[in-house]
């Protein structure tokens, strides 16, 4: 089973070490993500989740170990085009409209012509911004910016989605819609790495990695993590593994 997973792995993180100055922020982290798998990362603030996802998305350099995405050692600029990355801080152009942001990023990703128009239309619907598409992003709320960032990450139909707390500031109804879309993409074979503090989101992941002080302290299906710790919730399981409140 495990060897099949490694064979199918689209992301392989091997003994990853990251430091900022002398401080070790990721400490010998290893795991894989399979095709069509949703892997969730849980951990307290400052535990290293963002640093980890940034490294996989090739935004950050690393000092030890290696990260392979689709078999290529990262950072690899050809592979970046096959990843959709939604960062915690929005990477949007605030003086452009929502629509023009999407046009800009579509151009960057090589999504052109009729396809571009269709894709932008679909994504604006998905993130419920069609009515606000002609407004400059600087007039958007925090949640609207998150929604636009998700649309940007999905534009080029990436094989791997890396989402850093994508549902912060998103109302519960839209959050459900986002998850419906993540599960639909998963069915199509898209692999998703997602960080979250929301426990009902964690429950929807195929596997969860629990991170504390830069170490992966547990990795398994939500059911397995609860079973192993004899707990009823992921939150309790995490505490039992020695984490603190996520
Ligand atoms: N560029 C940087 N330079 C120095 N230290 C950094 C840098 N980026 C992150 N850190 C530190 O690395 C540690 C891990 O940060 P990271 O943002 O990865 O945590 P996190 O688990 O994503 O937290 P949160 O849940 O609050 O987003 C923190 O102590 C943070 O202060």
From TrEMBL:
Keyword Lipid biosynthesis: no
Keywords of this entry: ATP-binding, Nucleotide-binding
Positions of the ABC transporter domain: 11-238
Membrane-spanning parts: none
Keyword Methyltransferase found: no
GO molecular function ontology, one term from the record: ATP binding
Superkingdom to which the source organism belongs: Bacteria
Alphabetized InterPro entries for the sequence: AAA+_ATPase, ABC_transporter-like_ATP-bd, ABC_transporter-like_CS, P-loop_NTPase
Protein name: ABC transporter ATP-binding protein
Originating organism: Tumebacillus avium
């Amino acid at each position: 089973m495990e060897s099949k997973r490694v064979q199918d792995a689209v992301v392989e993180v091997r003994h990853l070490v990251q430091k900022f100055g002398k401080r070790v922020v990721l400490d010998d982290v290893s795991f894989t993500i399979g095709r069509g798998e949703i892997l969730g990362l849980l951990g307290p603030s400052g535990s290293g989740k963002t640093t980890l996802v940034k490294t996989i998305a090739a935004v950050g350099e690393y000092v030890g170990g290696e990260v392979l995405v689709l078999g290529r050692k990262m950072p690899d600029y050809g592979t970046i085009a096959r990843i959709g990355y939604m960062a915690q801080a929005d990477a949007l152009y605030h003086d452009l409209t929502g629509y023009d942001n999407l046009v800009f990023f579509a151009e960057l990703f090589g999504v052109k012509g009729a396809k571009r128009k269709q894709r932008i239309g679909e994504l604006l619907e998905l993130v419920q911004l069609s009515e606000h598409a002609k407004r400059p992003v600087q007039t958007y709320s925090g949640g609207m910016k998150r929604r636009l960032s998700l649309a940007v990450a999905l534009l080029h139909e990436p094989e791997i989605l890396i989402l850093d707390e994508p549902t912060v500031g998103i109302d519960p109804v839209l959050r459900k819609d986002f998850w419906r879309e993540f599960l639909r993409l998963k069915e199509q074979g898209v692999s998703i790495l997602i960080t979250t503090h929301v426990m009902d989101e964690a429950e929807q992941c195929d596997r969860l990695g629990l991170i504390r002080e830069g170490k992966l302290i547990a990795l398994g299906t939500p059911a397995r993590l609860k079973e192993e710790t004899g707990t009823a919730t992921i939150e309790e399981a995490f505490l039992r593994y020695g984490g603190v409140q996520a």
